[in-house]
Specification:
The complex is a heterodimer. Chain A is an alpha+beta fold. Chain A has two domains: 7-57 and 159-289, no CATH class; 63-152, Alpha-Beta Plaits. In chain A, 70% of the residues lie in helices and 8% in strands. In chain A, helix 2 (24-61) packs across helix 9 (211-251). Chain A starts with 5 loop residues before the first helix and ends in a 5-residue tail after the last helix. Chain B has one domain: 3-Layer(aba) Sandwich (Rossmann fold). The longest helix of chain B has 17 residues, at 152-168. Classes of the chains: A alpha+beta, B alpha/beta. At the A-B interface, helix 1 and helix 8 of A face helix 2 and helix 3 of B.
């Protein structure tokens, strides 16, 4: 195979640029659809990464707080609670220590307004062996003598936990779906490009360009469309990521600083766009031009 | 079967007319030479290379192929159409420019290089197509009815161009045509085909009343 010269690259880039310009609307449609696919794909990746983060936080929250009944000592309940089936561990919480830990995160004012005054009495933190079975364990805890109020997420945390788990499992299927959609889009656009350049392909054959040489133009064109789509999608993530993070920070202060940065997603999108477009271009040109040097 | 029991030897630098009615196998014979089709039986040798064992792209780099239809790129100028034939083979721009200017001169379109195909006459468009086929200085020119759509004057111009290259560059020319006047005027080797077979092969032959006679 003849080595690739700079002139070759120059001519091919020029031809690819002309090809894109010539098929303005098809190229534009490809960029828009590829960008949308990348936004959906990247958005899902980001959501999934953050749900994992939230799920981890929630998992820590799926603990049962047990307050002793009036006149009862909290440490006397440690043994009975530890014997309840489904309880992994029991920890005695010093009310003042808990307050000191939470105040910097939520702010003193928020804590005082949101929680009852006895929220920082001594209590017990019960860790469940299986967070999804919390309801039954909590019912048993309530029957223990000396137990006063039992605070649990009333299933909300568990539901979110299940949703996040489901999303993570279904995520793989969704990601594959987005990949296939983007691939089909790129393939269709490149097939149109090949059809539009039938005469150019014939001329190249006649003067002795190899099938791979002919395909190069379409691969470069696909790469440029993919790169442009990726940059567009990356720019949207860069802008929207900051907007979303700021919005969440103002709405849910305790999540501030906990969200995953979109930079990793932007990186993935920047690589994914050109790769998908190249795959599509490669398949389309292989089908139309072939690889056999007849 | 398009060709049957055809055996031809064409020395390097010779000009050969392939004549015969439509469907007699002229185009198929040319296609076998530029490897668009492969022979079911027998061998096609160019130089010392068996066409069946050579990569098609390498084979065609030493050829100039011309058709009846011009197949020009509508959005490129005459200059760009000719240059394209060399650019796709990664010939450096300065060389492409020099060669293209020479070719435009040769085909008589030096003052029309900037024009788009739609701004040229049919004859001029064919000369651009001929120029594109000559840009890589081929040693073998395969012309399949290149004057079929042209008036006599423009057909003569095309012949003159090919004849110049044939004489000056010692290029071998295989020229498939129906044009009796053309064949007779040049009085070169004429191979006549009928139903896929060579029925006459006369050097300096004349083509009269559908028969080829020695010149």
């Amino acid at each position: 195979m003849k080595s690739l010269s700079w002139w070759h690259v120059f001519y091919r880039l020029r031809d690819a640029r002309e090809g894109i310009a010539r098929n303005t609307w098809a190229s534009l449609a490809t960029v828009v659809l590829l960008t949308l696919t990348l936004l959906l794909f990247g958005g899902f990746l980001w959501l999934n990464a953050n749900l994992t983060q939230v799920a981890t936080l929630l998992e820590r929250q799926v603990q049962v707080r047990v307050f002793p009944a009036e006149g009862e000592a909290a440490d006397a309940l440690t043994g009975p609670l530890a014997r309840v089936p489904g309880v992994r561990s029991v920890e005695l919480l010093d009310g003042e220590a808990v307050y000191a830990e939470l105040a910097p995160v939520f702010g003193e004012e928020t804590l005082m307004n949101a929680l009852p005054t006895d929220a920082f009495a001594d209590s017990l933190s019960v860790e469940l062996a299986d967070p999804t079975q919390g309801g039954a364990v909590v019912d048993q805890i309530r029957t223990i003598t000396g137990v006063g109020e039992v605070i649990w997420g009333q299933g909300f945390a568990t539901v979110l936990y299940r949703i996040s788990n489901g999303l993570q499992k279904g995520g793989f299927v969704l990601i594959i779906g987005f990949f296939v959609a983007a691939l089909l889009m790129s393939l269709t656009a490149m097939q149109l490009a090949v059809l539009n350049r039938e005469v150019e392909i014939q001329i190249q054959r006649w003067v002795g360009v190899s099938p791979w040489g002919i395909r190069t133009q379409f691969l470069i064109e696909a790469f440029l469309l993919g790169l442009f789509s990726s940059i567009l999608a990356g720019a949207v993530f860069l802008y929207m990521g900051e907007v979303i993070q700021n919005a969440i920070a103002s709405l849910v202060p305790f999540m501030s600083g906990q969200l995953k940065s979109p930079m990793l997603v932007i990186g993935v999108v920047l690589v994914t766009g050109p790769v998908l477009a190249l795959l599509g271009g490669g398949l389309a040109s292989q089908r139309s031009i072939g690889t056999g040097d007849r | 079967m398009a060709l049957d029991n055809v055996s031809l030897t064409v020395p390097a630098g010779e000009w050969v007319f392939l004549v015969g009615a439509s469907g007699t196998g002229k185009t198929t014979l040319l296609k076998l030479l530029y490897r668009e089709e492969l022979a079911d039986e027998g061998r096609v040798i160019i130089g010392d290379r068996d066409v069946a064992t050579v990569r098609g792209s390498l084979l065609r780099r030493s050829m100039g192929i011309i058709f009846q239809t011009f197949r020009l790129l509508e959005k490129k100028s005459a200059f760009e159409n000719i240059a394209y034939g060399a650019e796709v083979l990664a010939v450096p721009p300065a060389v492409v420019r020099r060669r293209t200017e020479e070719i435009l001169e040769l085909v008589g379109l030096a003052d029309k290089g900037h024009r788009l195909p739609s701004e040229l006459s049919g004859g001029e468009q064919q000369r651009v197509a001929v120029g594109r086929a000559l840009i890589n200085r081929p040693q073998l020119i395969l012309a399949d009815e290149p004057t079929g759509d042209l008036d006599p004057e423009n057909a003569d111009r095309v012949i003159e161009i090919l004849d110049t290259v044939h004489r000056e560059q010692k290029a071998t020319v295989l020229f498939a045509t129906h044009a009796v006047d053309l064949v007779n005027r040049l009085a070169r080797r004429v191979v006549r085909l009928r139903e896929g077979r060579v029925i006459s092969d006369a050097v300096g032959g004349y083509w009269v009343n559908d028969e080829v006679t020695e010149g």
